[in-house]
Structures are given as C-alpha cells and as structure tokens.
C-alpha cells in the first residue's frame, strides 16, 4: 500500500517547510495542490517556494503554467493522479501540500458531486444516534448499503451519518457514488496540519505581505496588469494592486486590503479544516522533538502491507 501524506492548513502557516522536512525524511517528492502557485508569473504574490526551497526537495506543479493558460480543477485532478501513479513506482510515500481546499479534495477523494449535508436528515440521524447509539446507525447503513458498510470505519459516527444522509438524498448507494472516484486512489491518505492561535497566524500573514512588498510584489503585479481580467489574477495580492494602478486606491490602503483579504481567506480555510476529523496537528514553530513525535505517529498510520 502506498502512502500520501497531505500537509494542509491556512495560508502563511509554514506548510512549505513542513512538506520539505517530510520529503527529506522519506526521501521522496512533493506534489503541490496550491492552485495559485501553478502560475509561473505569480511567484511573489502566491509565496511560491523559493529557489532554495525548490532545491531542497523535488516539487511538482509549481510554476508549471502561464496565467494565459486555462486550467480547471478537473484537469488538475487527472494530472495529479497521473503524477502520483508515476511517483509511487519509486516511492512508498509521497507528500501533497497546499491550502487550496477543493484541489486537495480532488486528489484524495475525487470530484464527483456528492450533495451537501441535508440539515433535516442530519438532525434526524443525530437524534437516532443520541437515543439508540451508534449500533442503530450501523444497522441502517448495513441495510441500505452493505458494500460501503463492509469498508467504512463503522465506529466513526460522522462517516455513518454522512453516508446515510447521501443515500437518503440520492436514492443511490453511497458505495456506487464514491466508486467512480475511488478506483484510481489505491493509496492511504495521512493528513497533517499545523496549528497556531489566530493572533499568531494573523501576525504571520501581515508580516508575510510586508515581505512580499519588499521582494517586489508591486513590480510583479505591474507586469501582469494587462491580464487582470483573467481568472488566475482575480485573487488576493493582485486584485488590490490593480485598483491602486487604476487610481482607485492609494498604495497603503491597497496593502492593508491585501492583509485583510489574506486573513479572511485564512479564516475560511480554518473553518474548512476544522470540520475534518482526520487531520493530525503539529504546533507552529515545531521543535525537532515535535517532528520526531510526528514521524512516530505517521509510522503508526502508514500502511506497509501490499494487497
């Protein structure tokens, strides 16, 4: 069984460094799922790994496209799976890193459109769970979808709730709905996050924006002004500076808006990751001991058996 270690977390928290540390430990390569870092003209504003960082470990999908190219999440899913398939020939473990939530999901789960949770179903199921316990949920799922019941972690009541809810909504077996996307994912996924207090994170983001400005974000954005109508550039760090170039905002205000919008994006990311119950967290500014503990935790979750 091959293992994909996915490093997730909000913007500015230090995912690049952790991914490189892990890649070096496992002597492997890194696949990026940061949709903004695909574009080679946007190095500074997307905080793409530096030349030095890129030389410490082999990265894929960094600066591999031009902003002029259209690239969909579906194309990325296909390209990333192909790349993983290739890398797994020589490596038992590969690192995935990036804060683009849907792009990570595309790689680990697939993009087929499962419906969002239905509130009434969730309430109904929660009531059953509170009253009759997890056994009742297991029973319901087993009856509705014996195939999925055979593979699901049936002690995880959230997984049971989710599957039953989807079956009730679609009238189809959950196993059929996810089979489409799961076929090509014959790897074990281990998700690792970095956590920090909100204050620390926001401070890091503000500091990082100042550093981007020092590194030449203004010049980078100026060079891209003619493409400002393209989707790739309708993003934090560029959209604000285009308003400055257009005379709508002064520079200080534009920079403070970049900080504000970056913090807002981080907040959305935090909300998304908080909903997941399978992310193992490492604290910001981790020590060698913390890293060793993490490696120990990973080795307990790595699947070495081959089926």
Topology overview:
Elements: E1 2-8, H1 15-26, E2 30-32, H2 51-56, E3 59-60, H3 73-87, E4 93-97, H4 101-108, H5 119-144, H6 146-151, H7 157-170, H8 174-182, E5 187-195, H9 198-215, H10 217-223, H11 239-245, H12 251-274, E6 279-283, H13 288-301
Parallel strand pairs: 1-4, 1-5, 2-3, 2-4, 5-6
Question: Any overview of this molecule?
Answer:
- It contains 13 helices and six strands.
- It has 307 residues and is α/β, with parallel strands linked by helices.
- It folds into two domains: 2-110 and 185-301, Rossmann fold (3-Layer(aba) Sandwich); 119-182, Histone, subunit A.
- It has a six-stranded parallel sheet, sandwiched between helices.
- Helix 5 (119-144) crosses helix 7, helix 9 crosses helix 12 (251-274) and helix 11 packs antiparallel against helix 12.
- The longest helix is centred in the middle third of the chain and has 26 residues, at 119-144.
- The model has no long low-confidence stretch (mean pLDDT 92).
């Amino acid at each position: 069984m091959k293992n994909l270690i996915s490093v997730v977390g909000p913007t500015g928290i230090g995912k690049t460094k952790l991914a490189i540390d892990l890649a070096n430990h496992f002597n492997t390569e890194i696949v990026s799922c940061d949709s903004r870092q695909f574009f080679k003209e946007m190095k500074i504003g997307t905080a793409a790994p530096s030349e030095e960082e890129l030389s410490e470990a082999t990265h894929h999908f960094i600066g591999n496209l031009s902003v002029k190219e259209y690239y969909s999440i579906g194309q990325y899913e296909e390209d990333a799976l192909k790349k993983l398939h290739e890398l797994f020939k020589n490596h038992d473990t590969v690192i995935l890193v990036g804060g683009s939530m849907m792009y990570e999901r595309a790689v680990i789960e697939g993009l087929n459109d499962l419906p969002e949770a239905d509130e009434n179903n969730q309430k109904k199921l929660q009531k059953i769970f509170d009253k009759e316990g997890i056994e009742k949920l297991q029973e319901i799922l087993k009856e509705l979808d014996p195939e999925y019941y055979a593979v699901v972690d049936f002690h995880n009541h959230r997984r049971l709730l989710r599957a039953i809810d989807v079956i009730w909504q679609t009238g189809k077996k959950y196993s059929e709905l996810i089979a489409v996307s799961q076929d090509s994912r014959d790897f074990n996924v281990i998700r690792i996050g970095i956590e920090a207090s909100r204050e620390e994170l926001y401070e890091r983001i503000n500091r990082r924006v100042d550093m981007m400005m020092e590194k030449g974000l203004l010049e980078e954005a100026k060079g891209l002004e003619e493409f400002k109508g393209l989707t790739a550039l309708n993003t934090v760090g560029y959209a604000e500076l285009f308003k400055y170039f257009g005379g709508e905002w002064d520079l200080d205000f534009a920079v403070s808006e970049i900080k504000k919008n970056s913090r807002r994006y981080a907040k959305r990311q935090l909300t998304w990751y908080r909903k997941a119950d399978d992310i193992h967290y490492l604290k910001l500014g981790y020590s060698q001991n913390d890293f060793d503990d993490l490696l120990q935790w990973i080795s307990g979750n790595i699947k070495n058996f081959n089926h």
